[in-house]
Model the fold of this input.
Amino acid sequence: MPKAQETTLEIDLNALKHNFEYIKSKLKAHTKVLAVVKAFAYGSDANTVANFLQKLNVDYFAVAYTSEGIALRDAGITTPVLVLHPQAVNFKTLIDRCLEPSLYNAKILNEFISIATETNQTDYPVHIKFNTGLNRLGFRENDVNGIVSKLKDTNRIRVKSIFSHLAASEDLSEASFTKTQINAFDTIAKAFSKKIGYEPMMHLCNTSGILNYPQAHYNMVRTGIGLYGFGNSEKEDKNFKPVATLKSVISQIHHIQKGETVGYNRAFKSEELVRTATIPIGHADGIGRQYGNGKGFVTIEGKAAPIIGNVCMDMIMVDITAIDCKEGDEVILFGKQPTASTFASTTKSISYEIITAISQRVKRCYIGN
Done:
């Protein structure tokens, strides 16, 4: 891999392919794969990731917001795109860009039917979300008859899929709750399909659901964090390859004398002679202040260098007293080793938070295919 000369997020497309193929290896041949590429493909690069996965014949994409779907279309994505949390103000644009909405309550269902009627749509593909226990978005089981009645009164929309979201599929101590969710979804989906007279696709499993509950794969699964290299368990993490490596360089080295301080608010006070390195990355780039004052660390020449003092907007300072290094040397924040999970764990956070936090001002570069 090339050495960093500036702060860079390196995206390994070979790792992405490996993760996609590993997920597919867990599925039956007929089961479709929906790739979740919201939040800039979990902080990497949605356009590059989606185009790469489209070449690998992924079946569907999902984003959170309509604007993210528009960006994919502008980048040449022709694969179906599900918008998981659309707002009515964007429905006309959503239809114009051939995006497919998740409809999750009566208000949003009625408003989409109204816009579909106004724009003279016929059988426009929509996805009906049911709440089976996450209690975030979704209709409930007792809404089925009302939804069916609405659907039978119009030919403007047609249900492409029914879906729900597992709340704790990565936590095997919550297996009983997860199985309750699976059973609830199964009951709802079967009743819904019978009443509308056709069988939409059904999808329930996220990455951990795919790995832990093969009985709930239905006709399609959704994978987000798995694509980017994390299996949400020590056992499964070994089967994935982190896609993103966050690198930087040493800008300057200081010799801090006993009694001197480092950084804003003089948060670090030296008790002995200390060598520090200043690195061009800070909380504006996604490395939050919670990583300062000895909690977080970077890796230089294979050794951990703790972050000292407060994290600045554009810089961090690290202790390199025990590391033989020089200005211009490469610095690794996370990647293959240590991983984003390891980095995030120093502040009791998770891989999702740190990788999605990386600022868009950080340069992206690509290795692999």
